[in-house]
């Protein structure tokens, strides 16, 4: 099948099988910042924002998303123009292996957009679709708190 | 405390922005055109002989290119352990063999044009098995008449005890003093059996490899590995392909924890590329990682200790039985470390016996896993210490302080146990364990909570304490090296075989180089782990990188500094004047002159007596200075249900001088989180046929953010004079804490001792019930 996906504001022509999940369609078309950690909808490494809502792209059929806006971590900020959230992850030491980080950053973005002043429990709940094995989450939570502070000061 | 400018600072991890913006590439992010894709076929039986494989229907499917099995691959005995050479693990693996030894063992691999075709095609493979009686109980493995897993052609490449005819994969024994006399002197004897269980590393990136031939006909392997140089050597052996024609590239790696030390996929992908002259990709699914990669070895530890009424420890006897699973990867060295990293901690014990055996069973295969045997050993030792203190009514923190190994002291255990050989005598140069204990008991409010059983309705609280030590690399065996060269702007290329798998080693090694050269971190351009472009390093294991590679980098940077000074002397015509290097400048105070590093490099490259300022250095070490660790925890137990809630976890580590305190904390927090889940929720559940039934994140529960207790972490600094700028290791030690700390806290709350991890509500409930029934 063919369709046009709106990814980070750009229209991209994609080819995919009818039973294909969005994760594979994205990765097959070079969108490699969307990671594959389990394909069971458990780890959150493949998270994208679908019309602003965080979803595990391994659980979404590509055929169902052609009208939606897809945002990956590169849609939040890039190496040359990073977002405050990404900078906060760096500053807080929240990135170890970094495989979960794109998903974590997207979950953090969605949280802070809806709740600019989250409590620690709000953060823990918002990130609970994302597994990290490196950090014990301490510095990830600190990163979100730091980002919240910085966003409020801008 | 020395006055450093780069070391000791929480510099930003140099790859972290690239990772946080999704730019960094992991193995599966490298695009390869016209790649073949492989899906493995695994044994459904715990033990069976393959009579025949019929792949005709598979090969008839359009898009299937090949089916690899024992019928068309070389039968080369090797070990997948990913260690130095010759390995201290038995040669008992063949890539595809006609015998399968656990549910999940390799049977065949379908190679196809797409992953989907390969996956569909695997269902058409016909395998005729002769099912054999499996062996599941490690305690029965050496019994006469027990099923025998491995034939007599298996061998250990180093001279150690290895008896496959008895399913004995390894044995370690040390003894000193006189146990009988120790027993006679004892007023109390504590004799209990503990069980540490299977665990999965759960790096979020699954095991991945891609292979291709470059334009010169050399085989390139992009591998998610902790040990690139060992991968090259092992692939060369198994594929009978020359080392000169193999290049290993380690890109960003999404966590390892020991799981990616194992070299088992690289040779399969290499075989496909060599045979078909096409790129090849293998990426495991999560369930494959759980079942068919490697695990933490379960160890049954019998520990017997005697004490006098005064608390003086009279003897210690440890008998460890390690379940190695179907193959003997790390069977000897994990077993050794169950003693070697644990028993020196209380070094005043004069009478000691340690016997360890590793046995084969028809279950998943053990391997390297953060903590590496010490985690299992400390489960036992720390509960014993708690029992001793309770029995003798001693203050546990003070008792530990009195008895643990101190600066200037040694233990006979260091000398007695090495990595398949004798160990190395060493004396402790630095020890901040007392400060670690003080921090943890203060943070948990120990003296107001211990033995207080604070009750709230059906719930009761308790606190626990544990201590541990680890090592910093393998003395006289591990080698690391570095190469540096200088550029015109005063920057330096730092090329190392050291393998950053998310630990931050690229950053801290660059900090060491920058400190030695009195320059800033941004002047370091790091390239790590490419077997063509970087010098040798054993890789990321044994808590070795900061200490050993750190020393190599420091030595290399010192050589560069010498060359810089020589050139500066020439430029400034300084004669015999003393020259000082500071802030990327060389200063001649006598002449009141200075030159910048940039000026030095321009001069050396273009002006006079031109040469490239460059150097290399290698290091091996004669000792493995232990980092020290303490932790405390507070738990709340529901006495009606056994439900356990971990409220707070406090950790402190003495890792010498922390090169980067934030990254050191991150290592501890991550290790502790992994340890907490291993203690409470992670477990392998097998069917009665030996099939792992919970091989997914839904049923093998690792924590999410909301599961974490309040965490307090402290880096207690000491100065290890043998370490680079005073550093020791930090990567593994934190994982030793949670099992015994939580077990001791459970006892403090409800008065029952859980000897077998994990400490599930069901086990706690049953233990409370049987205690009430008595």
Structure report:
The complex is a heterodimer of chains A (154) and B (774). Chain A is of the alpha+beta class and 154 residues long. Chain A has two domains: 2-73, Roll (Ubiquitin-like (UB roll)), CATH 3.10.20; 84-152, Orthogonal Bundle (DNA polymerase, domain 1). Chain A has helices at residues 22-28, 73-76, 84-92, 101-114, 120-126, 138-152, and strands at 2-7, 10-15, 47-50, 53-56, 69-71. Chain A has a five-stranded mixed sheet, with helices on both faces. In chain A, strand 3 and strand 4 form a beta hairpin. The radius of gyration of chain A is 15 Å and the shape is globular. The mean pLDDT of chain A is 97. In chain B, helix 5 links the parallel strand 10 (219-223) and strand 11 (246-249). With 774 residues, chain B is α+β, with helices and mostly antiparallel strands. A seven-stranded mixed sheet of chain B has the order 3-5-1-12-9-10-11, sandwiched between helices. In chain B, strands 7-15-14-13-8 form a five-stranded mixed sheet, with helices on both faces.
Topology:
The complex is a heterodimer of chains A (154) and B (774).
Chain A: E1 2-7, E2 10-15, H1 22-28, E3 47-50, E4 53-56, E5 69-71, H2 73-76, H3 84-92, H4 101-114, H5 120-126, H6 138-152
Parallel strand pairs in A: 1-5
Antiparallel strand pairs in A: 1-2, 3-4, 3-5
Helix pairs in contact in A: 3-6
Chain B: H1 16-20, E1 36-42, E2 48-54, H2 56-59, E3 64-68, E4 99-100, E5 106-112, H3 115-122, E6 126-131, E7 168-176, H4 179-185, E8 188-196, E9 208-213, E10 219-223, H5 228-239, E11 246-249, H6 266-276, E12 280-283, H7 286-292, E13 299-307, E14 313-325, H8 331-340, E15 352-360, H9 374-391, H10 396-403, H11 412-416, H12 433-444, H13 446-449, E16 455-456, E17 459-469, E18 480-486, E19 492-496, H14 505-516, E20 524-528, H15 545-572, E21 579-582, E22 585-588, E23 593-596, H16 597-607, E24 614-619, E25 628-638, E26 644-654, H17 661-680, E27 710-716, H18 738-750, H19 761-773
Parallel strand pairs in B: 1-12, 10-11, 14-15, 19-20, 26-27
Antiparallel strand pairs in B: 1-5, 2-4, 2-6, 3-5, 7-15, 8-13, 9-10, 9-12, 13-14, 16-17, 17-25, 18-19, 18-24, 21-22, 22-23, 25-26
Helix pairs in contact in B: 5-6, 8-9, 9-18, 14-15, 15-16, 17-18
């Amino acid at each position: 099948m063919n369709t046009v996906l709106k990814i980070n504001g750009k229209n991209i022509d994609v080819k995919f099988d009818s039973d294909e999940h969005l994760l594979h369609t994205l990765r097959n078309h070079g969108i490699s910042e969307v990671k594959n950690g389990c394909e069971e909808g458990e780890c959150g490494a493949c998270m994208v924002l679908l019309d602003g809502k965080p979803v595990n792209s391994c659980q979404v059929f590509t055929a169902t998303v052609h009208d939606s806006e897809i945002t990956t971590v590169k849609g939040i900020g890039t190496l040359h123009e990073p977002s405050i959230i990404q900078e906060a992850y760096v500053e807080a030491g929240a990135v170890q292996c970094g495989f979960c980080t794109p998903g974590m950053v997207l979950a953090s973005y969605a949280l802070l957009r809806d709740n600019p002043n989250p409590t620690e429990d709000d953060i823990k709940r918002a990130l609970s679709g994302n597994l990290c094995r490196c950090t014990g989450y301490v510095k990830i939570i600190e990163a979100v708190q730091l980002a919240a502070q910085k966003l409020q000061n801008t | 405390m020395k006055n450093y400018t780069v070391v000791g600072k929480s510099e930003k991890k140099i790859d972290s922005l690239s990772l946080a913006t999704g730019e960094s590439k992991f193995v599966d992010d490298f695009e390869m055109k016209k790649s073949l894709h492989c899906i493995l076929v695994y044994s459904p039986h715990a033990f069976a002989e393959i009579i025949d494989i019929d792949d005709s229907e598979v090969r008839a499917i359009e898009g299937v290119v090949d089916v690899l099995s024992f019928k068309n691959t070389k039968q080369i005995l090797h070990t997948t352990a990913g260690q130095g050479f010759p390995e201290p693990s038995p040669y008992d693996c063949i890539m595809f063999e006609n015998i399968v030894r656990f549910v999940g063992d390799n049977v065949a691999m379908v190679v196809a044009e797409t992953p989907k075709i390969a996956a569909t095609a695997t269902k058409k493979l016909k395998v005729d098995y002769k099912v054999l009686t499996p062996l599941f109980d490690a305690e029965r493995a050496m019994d006469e008449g027990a099923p025998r897993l491995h034939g007599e052609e298996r061998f250990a490449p180093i001279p150690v005890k290895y008896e496959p005819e008895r399913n004995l994969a390894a044995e370690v024994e040390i003894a000193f003093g006189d146990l009988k006399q120790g027993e006679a002197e004892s007023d109390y004897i504590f004799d209990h059996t503990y069980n540490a269980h299977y665990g999965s590393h759960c790096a979020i990136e699954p095991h991945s490899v891609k292979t291709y031939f470059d334009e010169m006909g050399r085989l390139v392997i992009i591998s998610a590995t902790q040990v690139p140089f060992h991968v090259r050597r092992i692939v060369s052996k198994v594929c009978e392909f020359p080392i000169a024609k193999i290049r290993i590239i380690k890109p960003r790696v999404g966590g390892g924890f020991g799981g990616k030390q194992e070299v088992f996929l690289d040779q399969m992908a290499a075989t496909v590329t060599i045979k078909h002259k096409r790129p090849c990709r293998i990426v495991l699914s999560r369930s494959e990682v759980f079942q068919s990669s490697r695990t933490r070895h379960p160890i049954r530890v019998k520990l017997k200790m005697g004490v006098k009424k005064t608390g003086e420890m009279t003897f210690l006897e440890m008998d460890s039985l390690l379940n190695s699973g179907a193959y003997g990867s790390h069977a000897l060295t994990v077993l050794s470390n169950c003693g070697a990293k644990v028993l020196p901690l209380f070094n005043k014990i004069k009478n000691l016996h340690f016997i360890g055996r590793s046995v084969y069973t028809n279950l998943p295969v053990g391997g390297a896993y953060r903590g590496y045997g010490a985690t299992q050993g400390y489960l036992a030792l720390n509960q014993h210490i708690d029992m001793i203190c309770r029995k003798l009514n001693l203050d546990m923190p003070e008792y530990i302080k009195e008895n643990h190994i101190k600066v200037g002291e040694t233990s006979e255990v260091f000398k007695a146990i090495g990595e398949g050989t004798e160990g190395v005598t060493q004396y402790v140069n630095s020890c901040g364990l007392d400060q670690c204990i003080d921090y943890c008991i203060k943070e948990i409010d120990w003296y107001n909570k211990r033995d207080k059983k604070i009750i709230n309705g059906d719930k009761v609280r308790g606190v626990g304490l544990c201590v541990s030590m680890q090592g910093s690399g393998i003395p006289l065996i591990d080698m690391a090296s570095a190469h540096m060269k200088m550029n015109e702007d005063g920057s330096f290329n730092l090329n190392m075989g050291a393998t950053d798998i998310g630990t931050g080693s690229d950053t801290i090694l660059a900090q060491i180089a920058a400190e030695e050269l009195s320059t800033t971190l941004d002047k370091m351009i790091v390239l790590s782990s490419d077997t063509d472009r970087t010098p040798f390093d054993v890789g990321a294991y044994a808590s070795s990188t900061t200490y050993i590679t750190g020393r190599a980098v420091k030595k290399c940077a010192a050589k560069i500094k010498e060359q810089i000074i020589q050139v500066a002397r020439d430029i400034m015509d300084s004669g015999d004047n003393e020259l000082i290097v500071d802030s990327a400048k060389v200063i001649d105070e006598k002449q009141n002159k200075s030159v910048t590093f940039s000026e030095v490099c321009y001069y050396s490259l273009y002006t006079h007596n031109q040469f490239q300022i460059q150097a290399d250095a290698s290091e091996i070490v004669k000792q493995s200075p232990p980092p020290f660790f303490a932790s405390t925890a507070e738990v709340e137990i529901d006495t009606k249900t056994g439900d356990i809630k971990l409220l707070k976890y406090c950790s402190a580590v003495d890792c010498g001088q922390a090169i980067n305190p934030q990254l050191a904390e991150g290592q501890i927090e991550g290790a502790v989180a992994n340890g907490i889940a291993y203690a409470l929720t992670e477990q392998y559940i097998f069917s009665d046929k030996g099939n792992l039934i919970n091989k997914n994140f839904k049923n093998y529960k690792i924590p999410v953010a909301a599961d974490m207790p309040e965490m307090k972490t402290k880096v207690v600094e000491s100065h290890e004079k043998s370490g680079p700028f005073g550093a020791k290791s930090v990567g593994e030690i934190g994982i030793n804490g949670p099992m015994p700390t939580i077990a001791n806290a459970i006892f403090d709350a409800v008065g029952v001792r859980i000897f077998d991890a994990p400490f599930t509500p069901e086990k706690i409930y049953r233990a409370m019930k049987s205690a009430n029934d008595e």
